[in-house]
Amino acid sequence: MRVWLVGAVLVFTSVATRSSPRPPLTLSRTAEVARIRAHFDSVLGELRARDVSSYAPAQRAARARLLDSLAAYRDRGQFPENRDFAGLAVPYFIDRATGVHCAVAHLMRASGAGALAQRIASEDNNVWVAELTGNVAVAHWLTQHGLTLAEAARIQVPYMADDAPVAQMFGSSERAYAIGTAAVATPAVLSAWINARGNADGHRTAGRVLGFGAGIASVVFGTLAATDGNAPGYVAPVSLLSGAASAWLAARSQRRHTMIVAQQRASRVAGVQVAPLLPTRTSGAGLHVAMRF
Fold this sequence. Notes:
The chain is mainly α. The chain folds into 2 domains: 27-160, no CATH class; 167-264, no CATH class. Helix content is 60%, strand content 6%. It has helices at residues 2-16, 29-49, 57-76, 103-110, 114-123, 136-144, 149-155, 165-170, 173-196, 205-226, 235-267; strands at residues 89-90, 159-160, 271-277, 286-292. A two-stranded antiparallel ribbon has the order 1-2. Helix 3 (57-76) packs across helix 4.
């Protein structure tokens, strides 16, 4: 059990200490949508103004369709959200929580290359388009649709988090969940060990109280994580299992303590003892009566 606890703390610490090298930025969600739309306004102006007369007719037609699709994407106003990197500008190819595609992924899907967008997202969902320079499939798609890699990189926009207070405090929701899991699961596991070993008979009130308190806190945290699609996969099971174990062992200790107290009380059988008192120089004969209840 002690080895498991040490390992768990190390895992939580390693997850919590990961950070992003990108510069910090902050923006509300309303302003975020406006910022993204303004970005596409600028990009569409640049791309439509470019001379593509040297391109093949099929390329020019495909390019025009993509630009129209990008304009519709801008107008719809549904963009990926950064829920993981508070205060940082980070690209998302596909928002896994909502299924919303970034602009480049949307253009791929709209042109029949949705599988390519999914493959890129599965390999690195936070990849910058400029880093795809060696991707043959991406190069082929760009050529077919009259775009350059630089233009696709210009279309891509990183997303800024809403900066929820908890995420702001810890730097990302992933790190916040890692620290939160360690904070609730560690006391739950420790109290479970105490009530399983040294306090199995429930003679320590503090052990039982700690077990119930830590168990309930861990279960509540795990339940909340289970309803949050952005929570790391390990959070809910670790929190729920450690919390349930802590609460159950505390309840077992309480039940055993109650039984022991009841047995001790039952052993004190009510009764009356009567014994004769012999006469002495200072007192006469009599009876000694003792009652036990």
